[in-house]
Amino acid sequence: MITAPRRQNLVESSNSQLLHQLFKALPEEHRVSFLKEVIGSLSEDQREELIAQLEPDHSKIVAQTRVENGDLSPKPFKPAATPLTKSGEKEPTNEQKLAMAEAQFKQFSMQTGMAGDGKAKIRRQFWSCLGIGVLAIAVLILLAVGTRFLFDYARSTLTTEMSTAAQGDLPVAGDVEGDYTHTQGNDGVYQEITELESGGRLAKRHSYLEHKWQMDVVGGQEVAFLVKAYKSSTNEEQGFVFSWSRDDHKYIDMLTINNTVDHKEYQSARLPSLEDGKIFIRVRDTNRDRGDREKDTLYVDHLFIRSK
Fold first, then answer.
1. pTM here?
2. 257 near 169, Cβ under 8 Å?
3. pLDDT (tens digit per residue) in 237-296
4. Domain ranges of the chain
5. Which of 117, 218, 255, 257 has its CA at 20 to 30 Å from residue 149's CA atom?
6. What CATH number labels 162-307?
Protein backbone atom coordinates (compact mmCIF):
# COMPACT_ATOMS: atom_id res chain seq x y z
CA MET A 1 0.00 0.00 0.00
CA ILE A 2 1.35 3.45 -0.97
CA THR A 3 1.63 5.84 1.98
CA ALA A 4 0.58 9.49 1.80
CA PRO A 5 4.16 10.86 1.66
CA ARG A 6 5.00 8.35 -1.08
CA ARG A 7 1.92 9.36 -3.07
CA GLN A 8 2.87 13.02 -2.67
CA ASN A 9 6.38 12.31 -3.99
CA LEU A 10 4.98 10.50 -7.05
CA VAL A 11 2.71 13.42 -7.93
CA GLU A 12 5.52 15.92 -7.55
CA SER A 13 7.82 13.76 -9.69
CA SER A 14 5.14 13.52 -12.38
CA ASN A 15 4.68 17.31 -12.36
CA SER A 16 8.39 18.04 -12.74
CA GLN A 17 8.67 15.50 -15.56
CA LEU A 18 5.79 17.16 -17.43
CA LEU A 19 7.42 20.56 -17.00
CA HIS A 20 10.64 19.09 -18.30
CA GLN A 21 8.82 17.81 -21.40
CA LEU A 22 7.17 21.20 -21.92
CA PHE A 23 10.56 22.83 -21.57
CA LYS A 24 12.09 20.53 -24.20
CA ALA A 25 9.19 21.21 -26.62
CA LEU A 26 10.04 24.91 -26.74
CA PRO A 27 12.58 26.40 -29.18
CA GLU A 28 15.86 27.15 -27.47
CA GLU A 29 15.43 30.92 -27.69
CA HIS A 30 12.23 30.75 -25.58
CA ARG A 31 13.40 28.35 -22.88
CA VAL A 32 14.94 30.95 -20.56
CA SER A 33 11.75 33.04 -20.55
CA PHE A 34 9.64 29.95 -19.86
CA LEU A 35 11.89 28.82 -17.02
CA LYS A 36 11.66 32.27 -15.43
CA GLU A 37 7.87 32.21 -15.73
CA VAL A 38 7.23 28.84 -14.10
CA ILE A 39 10.08 28.48 -11.60
CA GLY A 40 8.38 30.66 -8.98
CA SER A 41 5.24 28.51 -8.89
CA LEU A 42 7.04 25.27 -8.05
CA SER A 43 7.47 23.71 -4.66
CA GLU A 44 10.92 23.19 -3.23
CA ASP A 45 11.06 19.51 -4.21
CA GLN A 46 9.70 20.18 -7.70
CA ARG A 47 12.19 22.94 -8.27
CA GLU A 48 15.10 20.79 -7.11
CA GLU A 49 13.99 17.92 -9.31
CA LEU A 50 13.46 20.18 -12.37
CA ILE A 51 16.87 21.82 -11.97
CA ALA A 52 18.46 18.39 -11.54
CA GLN A 53 16.85 17.24 -14.79
CA LEU A 54 17.81 20.38 -16.74
CA GLU A 55 21.33 20.94 -15.40
CA PRO A 56 23.15 18.12 -17.31
CA ASP A 57 21.83 18.91 -20.83
CA HIS A 58 20.91 22.60 -20.49
CA SER A 59 23.55 24.04 -18.23
CA LYS A 60 23.91 27.20 -20.34
CA ILE A 61 20.20 27.98 -20.13
CA VAL A 62 20.12 27.33 -16.38
CA ALA A 63 23.19 29.53 -15.93
CA GLN A 64 21.63 32.32 -18.04
CA THR A 65 18.43 32.09 -16.00
CA ARG A 66 20.46 32.36 -12.80
CA VAL A 67 22.04 35.57 -14.11
CA GLU A 68 18.74 37.09 -15.21
CA ASN A 69 16.51 35.74 -12.42
CA GLY A 70 18.90 35.36 -9.51
CA ASP A 71 19.67 32.15 -7.69
CA LEU A 72 17.46 29.23 -8.70
CA SER A 73 17.83 27.54 -5.37
CA PRO A 74 14.53 26.43 -3.89
CA LYS A 75 12.44 29.16 -2.35
CA PRO A 76 9.33 28.77 -0.29
CA PHE A 77 6.10 28.95 -2.25
CA LYS A 78 4.30 32.28 -1.81
CA PRO A 79 0.55 31.70 -1.47
CA ALA A 80 -0.18 35.43 -1.83
CA ALA A 81 1.14 35.39 -5.41
CA THR A 82 -1.84 33.39 -6.69
CA PRO A 83 -5.61 33.81 -6.30
CA LEU A 84 -5.81 30.28 -4.84
CA THR A 85 -3.92 31.21 -1.67
CA LYS A 86 -5.80 33.96 0.04
CA SER A 87 -5.38 34.56 3.72
CA GLY A 88 -6.72 31.67 5.72
CA GLU A 89 -6.97 29.27 2.78
CA LYS A 90 -5.04 26.08 2.25
CA GLU A 91 -1.92 25.86 0.10
CA PRO A 92 -2.73 24.76 -3.52
CA THR A 93 -2.48 21.08 -4.19
CA ASN A 94 0.04 19.63 -6.62
CA GLU A 95 -2.72 19.10 -9.20
CA GLN A 96 -3.66 22.78 -8.91
CA LYS A 97 -0.03 23.80 -9.27
CA LEU A 98 0.27 21.60 -12.38
CA ALA A 99 -2.84 23.23 -13.85
CA MET A 100 -1.34 26.66 -13.13
CA ALA A 101 1.93 25.65 -14.82
CA GLU A 102 0.07 24.40 -17.90
CA ALA A 103 -1.91 27.65 -18.04
CA GLN A 104 1.30 29.65 -17.81
CA PHE A 105 2.80 27.54 -20.60
CA LYS A 106 -0.22 28.16 -22.84
CA GLN A 107 -0.13 31.89 -22.11
CA PHE A 108 3.60 31.97 -22.76
CA SER A 109 3.12 30.11 -26.04
CA MET A 110 0.44 32.57 -27.15
CA GLN A 111 2.66 35.55 -26.29
CA THR A 112 5.73 34.18 -28.08
CA GLY A 113 3.80 32.99 -31.13
CA MET A 114 4.58 29.34 -30.51
CA ALA A 115 0.99 28.13 -30.17
CA GLY A 116 0.03 25.28 -32.49
CA ASP A 117 2.07 22.68 -34.20
CA GLY A 118 5.67 23.71 -34.84
CA LYS A 119 5.87 21.46 -37.88
CA ALA A 120 2.84 23.14 -39.43
CA LYS A 121 4.50 26.50 -38.98
CA ILE A 122 7.68 25.22 -40.61
CA ARG A 123 5.64 23.88 -43.53
CA ARG A 124 3.92 27.24 -43.94
CA GLN A 125 7.26 29.00 -43.94
CA PHE A 126 8.65 26.53 -46.49
CA TRP A 127 5.74 26.98 -48.93
CA SER A 128 5.89 30.73 -48.44
CA CYS A 129 9.60 30.81 -49.31
CA LEU A 130 9.00 28.46 -52.24
CA GLY A 131 6.25 30.70 -53.58
CA ILE A 132 8.51 33.75 -53.34
CA GLY A 133 11.28 31.85 -55.17
CA VAL A 134 8.97 30.75 -57.99
CA LEU A 135 7.67 34.30 -58.36
CA ALA A 136 11.22 35.66 -58.53
CA ILE A 137 12.17 33.14 -61.24
CA ALA A 138 9.05 34.02 -63.24
CA VAL A 139 9.93 37.72 -63.03
CA LEU A 140 13.49 37.01 -64.23
CA ILE A 141 12.20 34.97 -67.18
CA LEU A 142 9.80 37.74 -68.16
CA LEU A 143 12.60 40.30 -67.94
CA ALA A 144 14.87 38.13 -70.12
CA VAL A 145 12.17 37.58 -72.75
CA GLY A 146 11.25 41.26 -72.74
CA THR A 147 14.87 42.33 -73.07
CA ARG A 148 15.43 39.97 -76.02
CA PHE A 149 12.25 41.22 -77.70
CA LEU A 150 13.34 44.85 -77.31
CA PHE A 151 16.83 44.01 -78.60
CA ASP A 152 15.48 42.25 -81.70
CA TYR A 153 13.00 45.05 -82.34
CA ALA A 154 15.69 47.71 -81.99
CA ARG A 155 18.05 45.79 -84.26
CA SER A 156 15.42 45.32 -86.96
CA THR A 157 14.35 48.95 -86.68
CA LEU A 158 17.76 50.57 -86.51
CA THR A 159 19.59 48.35 -88.99
CA THR A 160 20.53 50.48 -92.00
CA GLU A 161 20.36 49.00 -95.47
CA MET A 162 23.29 50.11 -97.62
CA SER A 163 23.58 49.94 -101.41
CA THR A 164 26.94 50.10 -103.18
CA ALA A 165 27.05 50.79 -106.93
CA ALA A 166 29.97 50.27 -109.34
CA GLN A 167 32.82 52.73 -108.81
CA GLY A 168 35.02 51.87 -111.73
CA ASP A 169 35.40 49.85 -114.97
CA LEU A 170 38.02 47.18 -115.63
CA PRO A 171 37.56 46.34 -119.34
CA VAL A 172 38.94 42.96 -120.42
CA ALA A 173 37.39 41.95 -123.76
CA GLY A 174 34.51 43.61 -125.62
CA ASP A 175 33.41 46.81 -127.28
CA VAL A 176 32.07 49.08 -124.51
CA GLU A 177 29.69 51.98 -124.94
CA GLY A 178 29.15 54.10 -121.85
CA ASP A 179 30.89 53.58 -118.54
CA TYR A 180 30.18 52.37 -114.99
CA THR A 181 28.16 55.49 -114.19
CA HIS A 182 25.45 54.20 -116.55
CA THR A 183 24.99 51.22 -114.19
CA GLN A 184 24.43 53.27 -111.02
CA GLY A 185 20.67 53.73 -111.27
CA ASN A 186 17.44 52.24 -112.61
CA ASP A 187 16.97 54.92 -115.25
CA GLY A 188 16.91 53.14 -118.64
CA VAL A 189 20.41 54.38 -119.47
CA TYR A 190 22.53 51.32 -120.32
CA GLN A 191 26.16 50.44 -120.44
CA GLU A 192 26.48 48.28 -123.58
CA ILE A 193 29.16 45.61 -123.93
CA THR A 194 29.46 43.71 -127.24
CA GLU A 195 31.41 40.52 -127.83
CA LEU A 196 34.66 40.42 -129.80
CA GLU A 197 35.77 37.81 -132.31
CA SER A 198 38.79 35.74 -131.47
CA GLY A 199 41.77 35.47 -133.83
CA GLY A 200 43.23 32.44 -135.56
CA ARG A 201 41.93 30.31 -138.35
CA LEU A 202 38.46 31.22 -139.46
CA ALA A 203 36.99 27.81 -138.63
CA LYS A 204 38.24 28.03 -135.07
CA ARG A 205 37.18 31.54 -134.30
CA HIS A 206 34.47 32.33 -131.73
CA SER A 207 32.91 35.35 -130.06
CA TYR A 208 33.66 36.19 -126.44
CA LEU A 209 33.18 38.92 -123.83
CA GLU A 210 34.56 39.77 -120.40
CA HIS A 211 34.14 42.91 -118.34
CA LYS A 212 34.70 43.84 -114.67
CA TRP A 213 33.49 46.47 -112.25
CA GLN A 214 35.02 47.53 -108.96
CA MET A 215 33.10 48.40 -105.75
CA ASP A 216 34.01 49.45 -102.21
CA VAL A 217 31.21 47.78 -100.28
CA VAL A 218 29.89 48.33 -96.77
CA GLY A 219 29.94 44.98 -94.98
CA GLY A 220 26.99 43.31 -93.29
CA GLN A 221 25.44 40.04 -92.17
CA GLU A 222 22.95 40.00 -95.06
CA VAL A 223 24.55 40.74 -98.43
CA ALA A 224 23.09 40.37 -101.93
CA PHE A 225 24.01 41.23 -105.52
CA LEU A 226 21.27 42.68 -107.76
CA VAL A 227 21.39 43.45 -111.48
CA LYS A 228 18.88 44.71 -114.05
CA ALA A 229 20.09 43.76 -117.54
CA TYR A 230 19.25 41.88 -120.75
CA LYS A 231 21.04 40.63 -123.88
CA SER A 232 20.47 40.85 -127.63
CA SER A 233 18.61 38.04 -129.38
CA THR A 234 21.32 37.25 -131.95
CA ASN A 235 22.23 33.88 -130.35
CA GLU A 236 19.59 32.21 -128.16
CA GLU A 237 22.16 29.81 -126.68
CA GLN A 238 24.38 32.60 -125.48
CA GLY A 239 24.15 33.84 -121.89
CA PHE A 240 26.17 36.10 -119.62
CA VAL A 241 27.21 34.94 -116.18
CA PHE A 242 27.99 37.34 -113.33
CA SER A 243 30.58 36.38 -110.67
CA TRP A 244 32.21 38.08 -107.68
CA SER A 245 35.65 38.08 -106.09
CA ARG A 246 37.57 39.69 -103.25
CA ASP A 247 41.01 39.50 -104.90
CA ASP A 248 40.22 39.63 -108.65
CA HIS A 249 41.61 36.10 -109.05
CA LYS A 250 39.21 33.58 -107.58
CA TYR A 251 35.66 34.26 -108.81
CA ILE A 252 32.39 32.70 -107.63
CA ASP A 253 29.45 32.54 -110.06
CA MET A 254 26.21 34.19 -108.94
CA LEU A 255 23.61 34.35 -111.74
CA THR A 256 23.18 34.27 -115.53
CA ILE A 257 21.40 36.74 -117.82
CA ASN A 258 19.40 34.97 -120.54
CA ASN A 259 16.44 37.27 -121.11
CA THR A 260 16.37 39.19 -124.40
CA VAL A 261 13.94 41.88 -123.22
CA ASP A 262 14.16 44.37 -120.38
CA HIS A 263 11.47 43.07 -118.03
CA LYS A 264 12.05 45.95 -115.62
CA GLU A 265 12.91 43.39 -112.95
CA TYR A 266 16.08 42.60 -111.01
CA GLN A 267 17.85 39.30 -110.77
CA SER A 268 19.57 38.72 -107.45
CA ALA A 269 21.99 36.36 -105.71
CA ARG A 270 22.75 36.01 -102.01
CA LEU A 271 26.37 36.46 -100.88
CA PRO A 272 27.97 35.42 -97.60
CA SER A 273 28.36 37.98 -94.84
CA LEU A 274 31.14 40.41 -95.72
CA GLU A 275 33.36 42.94 -94.06
CA ASP A 276 33.95 46.40 -95.47
CA GLY A 277 36.28 46.36 -98.44
CA LYS A 278 36.81 46.06 -102.15
CA ILE A 279 34.80 43.67 -104.35
CA PHE A 280 35.12 42.85 -108.05
CA ILE A 281 32.14 41.95 -110.25
CA ARG A 282 32.84 40.11 -113.49
CA VAL A 283 30.62 39.21 -116.46
CA ARG A 284 31.50 36.60 -119.10
CA ASP A 285 29.75 34.97 -122.02
CA THR A 286 28.78 31.33 -121.60
CA ASN A 287 29.32 30.06 -125.18
CA ARG A 288 32.76 29.97 -126.77
CA ASP A 289 32.30 27.09 -129.16
CA ARG A 290 34.42 27.02 -132.30
CA GLY A 291 32.67 28.53 -135.26
CA ASP A 292 30.20 30.49 -133.11
CA ARG A 293 31.16 33.94 -134.33
CA GLU A 294 27.87 35.77 -133.73
CA LYS A 295 28.40 38.81 -131.54
CA ASP A 296 25.89 39.35 -128.77
CA THR A 297 25.51 42.51 -126.73
CA LEU A 298 24.85 42.82 -123.00
CA TYR A 299 22.81 45.81 -121.82
CA VAL A 300 23.35 46.71 -118.15
CA ASP A 301 21.00 49.28 -116.64
CA HIS A 302 21.69 48.89 -112.94
CA LEU A 303 23.91 46.71 -110.73
CA PHE A 304 24.77 47.07 -107.05
CA ILE A 305 25.56 45.28 -103.76
CA ARG A 306 22.98 45.55 -100.93
CA SER A 307 24.10 44.89 -97.35
CA LYS A 308 22.64 45.29 -93.87
1. 0.49
2. no
3. 789 999 999 999 999 999 999 999 988 899 999 999 888 899 999 999 988 888 788 889
4. 4-115, 116-158, 162-307
5. 218
6. 2.60.120.260
